[in-house]
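haha ok so turns out i had the wrong file open the whole time. this is the CORRECT one, sorry everyone. sequence first:
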Amino acid sequence: MAKKYVYIVDGSRSPQLKAKGRQGPFSASDMAVQAAKPLLLRNSLATENVDEVILGCMMPSPDEANIARVVALRLGIPQRVPAWTVQRNCASGMQSIDSAYNNIKSGLSDIVLAGGVEAMSHAPVLLNNNMVNWLGGLASARTPAKKFKHILKLRPHLLKPVIALIRGLTDPIVGLNMGQTAEEIAYRFNISRAQMDEYAVASHQRLAQAYDDGALDEIEVLYDSNGNYYDEDDGMRRDSSVENLARLRPAFDRKYGSVTAGNSAQITDGASWVLLASEKAVKKYNLSVLAKISDTEWAGLDPKVMGMGPVHAMTPVMQRNKLKIDDIDYWEINEAFATQVLGCVAAWNEEAYCKEHLNLKKPMGSIPHDRLNIDGGGISLGHPVGASGARIVLHLANILKRKNAKRGIASLCIGGGQGGAMLIEREDTTEQENEHE
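then structure:
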């Protein structure tokens, strides 16, 4: 039986906008809609031909319940087309693509719009439980006298807010926030502060070079209600230097730590999409093709070192497809923290880790720095958690096209102790069709 291929036809993303202590100019659904419109318009495909819309998002606003459906209807996709939202922490955007991939492979869909979005600057500020109970008591008081008596019970501590972003970035099982898990990796692999800062500077330099080379045409301009436009990832620092980063204090372990705001991913708003199609749909609608998805993997591990998730997910993909590191042309490993990416590289080089945790007889080997995150990553352009998984898959596909390369792997660590990986390949679709008819 011929293997069913799933193709990445095209994709687009918004610029990623750094959170600056106040709500950004766009809600999550606004960003998702503006990023998707040009993608749909430039492909020879009517919206009624889309079979479903899948969108990853961690923190939609109260007005964006099932944000995928909200966005789909705002895009003019017919009401009969189902839309659903997925959530797998930092890999929500990749989960949406994987869900679409499996639905197309199984024959349930032929064309799917899949992606991820997050407006982290709009993360809610919540009432604490004591305040919620106080409000409940006030609502249940039936007479003015009882209400007045209850109001007298209001105390300042009841007004203490719950910051959803901070709570969401803390693992409830091990009691560590994501930065503290990065410190665990730095300690385990003896990664120095200087190494982290050097990696962070390289991320900014690579992103700046990508802009200078015109390598980021995947970005669609956003326009706000005041007529302002946004066309670049505004967290990029062309003047970043090891000297400047060295002045920053550790953010998560003040006394002994090395992880700082400068060598960590930025808190950011962003949206990213890919348009996926079956082989039948590619032929029927004469669609161009960026790449095909060849394999995916999800893995679990100790939440205390969740940043090692990529090696736990990439290893089975490599084994299943009988691949060596030299067989992979480019790698996108989401930069949640500099030490997390460096830790993954170190783990594949260490015999003890490979044997104990990855069930390998010998080290996998070293990922070349010049093939890893070649246009920067989360440190320089941000990590909007629901969107990053879709962004790295889209960008990797564009890299393969730009470099005329064949094969790449996109991977992320996932809060809670998981990893996700996706193998994509670029080949001539005509040859594939002839081979598998």
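The first helix runs from residue 28 to 42.
again sry for the mixup
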